[in-house]
C-alpha cells in the first residue's frame, strides 16, 4: 500500500476554476490482507457529472464510503468543497447527499416518513420538508406508495426512496453508489432528468456504475478504477480517446477470459 501525505486542494488560480467539489488525497484501506483501495487521489470539478467505473471488487464502494465519512480511511482523506471530511465531518456532511450501496434504511417507516425523517434530521423546517417530500415522491413515481412501509418496497423502489432521502436538503454534492441498479427504465429516465437539471443549476453528481453506455451518455467526466488504483480520469472524451467507453474500459482493465473450458456446459 502506498502512502501519500494528504494535502488540501489548492484553490485553482485560473479564472472560472474553483475548489473541486470532491478531492481525494491518497485514500487507502485494507481489509485483512486485501488492499481494497491503494493510495487513490482524484479531483472532481464542481458542477461536473462524474462517473466512477471499475470491475467488481475494484474498490469503488470502499472509496466512496471513505469519501463521504462512512468508512474511516487507513491513510489519506477527502475534502468536500475544501472541507476535510474526517476533520470536520458535520460541516462536510451538510454539503453532501449520499446514496450508499447496501446500507440498511430505517425500513419500518413508510416511504414518506423515511424521507421526512431525513429532512428533519438535517434541521429543515417542517412545512418545507412536507412540500419537498411530496414533490420528490411524485418525481420518482413513488406517490401511490408513500404510505407503504419501506420494508415492503421492491429493490428499485428502495433505491428511489434512498435517493429521495439524499436529495431532500438540496446538497451541493450528490454521491450516488449504483443509483440505477434495479431501477426500471422509465424511473431511470426520470432520475436522469432530475440529476441533469441539478447539474445544470451548478450541483455536482458523482455516480458509480457498471453500465458504460449510461456513463458515456450521462456523465461529462469519468474515472476508471481497478484493484484500488486509478487507471484513468478526465473528461469522458479524454478517457475514451475516440473509442466507446466500454471498449476503452476493457482495454484499461483487461481481464477478458478466453472461452476455453466449461465444455461441460455444452453437453446437455
Ligand atoms: N467489509 C469488508 N470486509 C472485507 N473485505 C471487504 C469489505 N468491503 C470490501 N471488501 C473487499 O474490498 C474490495 C473492494 O470492494 P468494493 O466493494 O469497494 O468494490 P466495488 O468496486 O464497489 O465492487 P462492485 O462493483 O462489485 O460493487 C473487494 O475485494 C472486497 O471483497
TrEMBL record:
InterPro entries: AAA+_ATPase, ABC_transporter-like_ATP-bd, ABC_transporter_ATP-binding, P-loop_NTPase. Keywords: Antibiotic resistance, ATP-binding, Nucleotide-binding, Transport. Residues 22-252 form the ABC transporter domain. GO terms for molecular function: ATP binding. It is found in: Cell membrane. It holds the Pfam family ABC_tran. It is a peripheral membrane protein. SMART domains: AAA. PANTHER family: ABC TRANSPORTER ATP-BINDING PROTEIN, DOXORUBICIN RESISTANCE ATP-BINDING PROTEIN DRRA. This is ABC-2 type transport system ATP-binding protein.
Amino acid at each position: 500500500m502506498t502512502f501519500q501525505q494528504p494535502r488540501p486542494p489548492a484553490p485553482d488560480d485560473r479564472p472560472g476554476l474553483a475548489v473541486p467539489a470532491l478531492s481525494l488525497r491518497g485514500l487507502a484501506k485494507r481489509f485483512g490482507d486485501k488492499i481494497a483501495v491503494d493510495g487513490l487521489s482524484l479531483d472532481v470539478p464542481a458542477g461536473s457529472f462524474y462517473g466512477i467505473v471499475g470491475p467488481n471488487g475494484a474498490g469503488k464502494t470502499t472509496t466512496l464510503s471513505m469519501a463521504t465519512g462512512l468508512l474511516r480511511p487507513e491513510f489519506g482523506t477527502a475534502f468536500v468543497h475544501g472541507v476535510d471530511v474526517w476533520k470536520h465531518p458535520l460541516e462536510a456532511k451538510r454539503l453532501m447527499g449520499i446514496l450508499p450501496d447496501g446500507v440498511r434504511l430505517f425500513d419500518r417507516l413508510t416511504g414518506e416518513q423515511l424521507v421526512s425523517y431525513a429532512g428533519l434530521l438535517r434541521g429543515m423546517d417542517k412545512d418545507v420538508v412536507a412540500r419537498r417530500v411530496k414533490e420528490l415522491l411524485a418525481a420518482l413515481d413513488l406517490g401511490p406508495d408513500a404510505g407503504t412501509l419501506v420494508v415492503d418496497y421492491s429493490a428499485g423502489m428502495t433505491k428511489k426512496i434512498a435517493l429521495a432521502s439524499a436529495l431532500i436538503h438540496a446538497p451541493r454534492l450528490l454521491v450516488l453508489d449504483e443509483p440505477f441498479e434495479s431501477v426500471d427504465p422509465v424511473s431511470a429516465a426520470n432520475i436522469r432528468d432530475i440529476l441533469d437539471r441539478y447539474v445544470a443549476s451548478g450541483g455536482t453528481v458523482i455516480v458509480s456504475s457498471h453500465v458504460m453506455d449510461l456513463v458515456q451518455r450521462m456523465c461529462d467526466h469519468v474515472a476508471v478504477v481497478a484493484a484500488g488504483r486509478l487507471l484513468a480520469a478526465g473528461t469522458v472524451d479524454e478517457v475514451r480517446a475516440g473509442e466507446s467507453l466500454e471498449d476503452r474500459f476493457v482495454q484499461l482493465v483487461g481481464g477478458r477470459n478466453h472461452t476455453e473450458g466449461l465444455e461441460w456446459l455444452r453437453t446437455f
